[in-house]
Amino acid sequence: MKVVVADDQPVIRDGFAALLEAQPDLWVVGKAANGRELVEQVAVAEPEVALVDVRMPVMDGIEATRRITASGDTRVLILTTFGLDEYVFDAIRAGASGFLLKDVTAERLVEAVRLVGEGSMLLGPGVTRRLVEDFGVQRAAGEEVLRLTPRETEVLLLLGQGWSNAEIAASLVVGAETVKSHVSEVLRKLGLRDRVQAVVFCYERGLVTPGVR
Description:
By secondary structure, the chain is α/β, with parallel strands linked by helices. It folds into 2 domains: about 1-115, Rossmann fold, CATH 3.40.50.2300; about 125-205, Rossmann fold, CATH 3.40.50. The protein is built from 11 helices and 5 strands. It has helices spanning about 10-20, 35-45, 60-70, 85-95, 105-115, 125-135, 135-140, 150-160, 165-170, 175-190, 195-205; strands at about 1-5, 25-30, 50-55, 75-80, 100. Strands 2-1-3-4-5 form a 5-stranded parallel β-sheet, sandwiched between helices. It is elongated, with a radius of gyration of 18 Å. GO terms for molecular function: DNA binding.
C-alpha cells in the first residue's frame, strides 16, 4: 500500500514516514512539507493513502484534501492536535476519510493507515456526533431516526459500517454492556430484527457509503 506523508514539521514528518516504511506492507512514496507539495506528489505517485497535517503553509491540509479527493482515489487521513479541532470537520467535508491525534500510538497509526487504505472510515465519537448535528443525518434518514437519541444515532452509524460491539465500545469509550443496550434500543425503535437489517437500513437511507467498512 503506497502512502504519502505531509507535515510541515520535519521531525514529525520523518518520524511517521520511518514508522510506516518499517512495515512490510506499507511503502512511503513521498513526503511533503506543505499542501501544494502534497497535491503534486499524490498526482504523480497515486498512493492509496495520504497522511495529512491540517495546518500547513502554502496550502493547508483542508484545501489539499479537497483537491486530492476530487481528482483521484487517494484516501486522506487527517492529523490534528485537538480531537475536536474545527479544521477536522472542514477536512471531512472536503472528503477526508478520518482523523488521528498527533500523539497517536505507533500501533494505532499503522492500523489506521491500513484501515483507511482498505476503505474504512475513522471517526471518533465527537466527530460522529458533530456530523450528525451538522449534516442533519437524522432528518435526512427520515422520521424513524428522529426517535433515536444522539448517542443511539452514533451507534446506528457505526452499526451501518459493520462495526462489532467491541469496536463500538472502544470508539465511544463505553462498556460492552452499554453498547449492547444501545444496540437493542436502536433495533427496537427502528423496528429492525437484527444487525444485518441495521446495515441495510443505513445503506438504503444513504447514511453509509458502499465500500466503507
